[in-house]
């Protein structure tokens, strides 16, 4: 129902600026010249290629920076379920922790400092586990794989930084995003079954330590190049955005011209009206040429 309401409201607008990218590389959106309303214009991804500030609603936990820098690029599993997903059950959180431990990879787990989220690991992680739990983490090259809820911003960020995706969608459009990740682009894998410890372990090994994962990485490189462009800026997005601005400016100019024409017409009508009044006045006050001389 939520998306139906969004689509219904969208009928009243002329353009929709979408934080996404077109299906084909290098093409401006083919509906720009179409008269249908609304016209969706892909202008994404709306992310800085080298951002220095935190764009999340949650504060980054930079206490893990030194730990991250100690690991080689692409070696760490980053676990995050976004800003809006409801807390997972304590049993599920515990299963994820055991699966991460069994995979034998260093991991960084972004768990909000909230009892509802952390009760599954309320005692902390055992000292021998190669992982850390933080409130929120900055992006670093050491991360190789996202274990993610498949939120759209997380998906775009993974593509931007060429990270494998291990998918655990929870609600809403996350399932649609997961379908694109798995079948549309082939850059990730879905957690099998009930997402227990063995599924987490197998999923991490599948994307990070198999030939299938190597193929996913090649696809990621190609997809990033298509989405972000060679220089980290999507030419298609820039063209669409510039076209939108030009169209808006053109509409404003057209409205200005129409208003000026209306003013000119009004002044012309006013002048003509005044001329007729003056003529009638002259006619009524002039000499009577019809009487006797």
From TrEMBL:
Transmembrane segments: none annotated. This is UDP-glycosyltransferases domain-containing protein. The keyword Isomerase does not apply. GO terms for molecular function: UDP-glycosyltransferase activity. It comes from Zingiber officinale. It comes from the Eukaryota. Keywords: Transferase.
